[in-house]
Structures are given as structure tokens and as C-alpha cells.
Amino acid sequence: MIRVVASPNIAFIKYWGKELSSDPARVNWALNPSLSLTLSKAQTTTELEFLELGQDSMTLEGHSASEKDREKIRQHLGRICRAMELPVPVAIRYQSENNFPMAAGIASSASAFAALTWATLGCLLGQEEAEKWIALNKRRVSEFCRWGSGSACRSVDGPYMLWRDDAAELQNFPLKLRDTVLILSRAKKTVSSRDGHQAALSSPLLAKRLAGVESRLAQMTRALETHDLKVFGQLLETEALEMHEVARRGTPSVEYWTEDTRRVLSAIQEMTDRDFYFTLDAGPNVHIISERDVSGELRALLSKLGIVAELWEDKSGSSPQYL
Ligand code: DP6
């Protein structure tokens, strides 16, 4: 039996829009490179066992997994076994739990697929061999994760990951950033990111975004390398607003924000001389990226606005670990 823990990540430059291709090698192939911060406190813990007979048993968050989730897990695991040229198990026991609220606007699919990838390799090779193999084949492992969910390919290491084409690689920046999430809503997303990626393709703003994203990435990389938090922050916010505008202008139009999202964002934008900056994933919750602990200021802001919200205070993290 293998036990593994993996963390999700928050994108600074977003993966929004993927190729329409029937080639399995190009599944979840992003239209643009993306840059992210791997978290540490938010974790998915997965247990996996290969069984020689019997039937699959799959539990997610303490409940028997849905048919759709079983299919995704089976497919991902099977694909890794085949890629490793090793036999697919007759049956499995799979159990996975998150220590963070699933609908907190923290992408649980990234940590879930990173954990499942590590667990599958652990079951196939044995934990010690798997650790060695992963260390020697980092890009390949990132690619395996991508097959499950695009953003998962960036959860293979950290703190900073750059995903380009098939896989993501570690970046070295001299600053330590944290992510404080304002959980404004715990409601399940109205549109999955999978459907959001699809709708983005019809957005008239997508072509312009794609034409400018490389330059934004280069500027952001420079800002992070030179420890220029202000320039980084401005780029971070422009990027998040752009992603949501692309989504809004697609067919169908995808709106992830709520009234509270709008109020919080405008209040933050009005604050002069900030040293913390916002971004958002495919959801209404606001992620605040900063170097120092800004939870006090954020609580004060929420209370001034009369918004009741929980804070999820996270820090930077790294690769999944066997337990
Ligand atoms: C807005 O990785 O969840 O969080 O590849 O279809 O599983 P699939 O999508 P997913 O998309 C993440 C979208 C995002 C931006 C990002 O993480 O880069």
C-alpha cells in the first residue's frame, strides 16, 4: 500500500484554453505557457493499493467515488501503467482526501492527479525505486500528471513552476511568496474549468491574449528574478482580470465572480501603496499573493465591507511526498 501527499498550485500566468486534439499525447495541451506557485498547507492525501483479485474500491472525501470519478481514476492509472510498460492491476483500492474545502477555489484536481500519479508509480515500482525514477524523470512525471488535469503538471515540484508544452519545470526565484485565499463562496463551481477552457476558444479576446502572454510571462519572470514585487503584482492582477474577461466574452459566457468578488476586488484596487496582490482561479474566491502575513489587513477589509468569509492561509511548497 502506498500513501502520498501532494499540494495544489495557484497560477500567476493562467492556463486558459487548450488544444482541440484527438491525439492522446496532446491531451490538456495548453495554448500558452503558465507559471505557478505550489502550495504547502493545502494537501491531498491518497492511499493506493493494487489488488490481485476482487473489485475496485474507491473513496473520495469519505464517500464512494462517483462513476465519473472512478472512470477518470481508472483511466489515469491505466495510462501510466501502459506508459511504464507494466501490467494494469486487476483491481485497486483508492482512497483520497483533501484537508482543504473542495470548493475553496483551490484547484483540487491538480493535487488529486499529482497524488494519484505518485501513488501509481509507487505501486508499480515500489516506493524506493519510484522515488529514484521520479528524480531522474521529472519532466516525464509532470507529463503523466498533465494527462489527468493540465494544472496537475505544475504540482510536481515547487515553489515556482513553469509549464510549457508537454510538462512543467522548476524555476528559481529569490522570494518567498504566500497565498491567502478569501473564501467568499463554498458553492460548487457553476462551470467546470474543463468547460471553461472549451468556452474560451470562442472568445473574441483569446487571440489578443495569446499574442501578449509570452511578453507578460517574460516581464513577470524578470520581476520575480529581481525581487520587484510591485511590478510582479501589477502583472498578476492584469493577468487574472484578463482571464476572467476572456471567459466572460466566450460562448457560452462564463462568469465566475459573485457580487462579493467584485466588491472585494474594487476595495483592494482602491488601496494605495499595497504590497499584496490578487489573482483568481476559475471561481469566485480571491487569492492574495504577498511576501508577508497580510491576514490582519484582509480581515479588517472584509469586516469593513460587511462580508463574512473564511481565510485559507497558505505558504509555498514543493513536490509530492510518500508518507
Ligand atoms: C483557471 O487544470 O483544472 O485554474 O486540464 O481541464 O483539468 P483541466 O483544467 P484545470 O484548469 C485550471 C485553470 C485555472 C488556471 C490555471 O491553473 O492555470
Largest sheet: 6 strands, mixed
* Spatial strand arrangement across the major sheet: 6-5-7-4-1-14
Order of helices and strands: EEEEEEHEHHHEEEHHHHEEHEE
From the 3D structure, determine the CATH topology of the largest domain.
Ribosomal Protein S5, domain 2
Work out the number of β strands: 14
Helix content: 25-40%
Q: Which ligands, by name, code or SMILES, are bound?
A: ligand DP6
Mean pLDDT: 96
CATH class placement of the largest domain: Alpha Beta
Structural domain count:
2
Uncertain segments: none
Description:
The chain has 323 residues and is an alpha+beta fold. The protein has two domains: 2-174, Ribosomal Protein S5, domain 2 (2-Layer Sandwich), CATH 3.30.230.10; 178-315, 2-Layer Sandwich (Alpha-Beta Plaits), CATH 3.30.70.890. Helices cover 39% and strands 22% of the residues. The strands form three sheets. The chain has a six-stranded mixed beta sheet, with helices on one face. Helix 2 (108-125) packs across helix 3 (127-136), helix 2 packs across helix 4 (138-148) and helix 6 (206-225) runs antiparallel to helix 7 (229-248). The radius of gyration is 19 Å and the shape is globular. It starts with a strand and ends with a strand. The mean pLDDT is 96. It binds ligand DP6. Ligand DP6 binds at residues 11, 14-16, 28, 34, 107, 109, 149-151, 193-194, 197, 281-282.
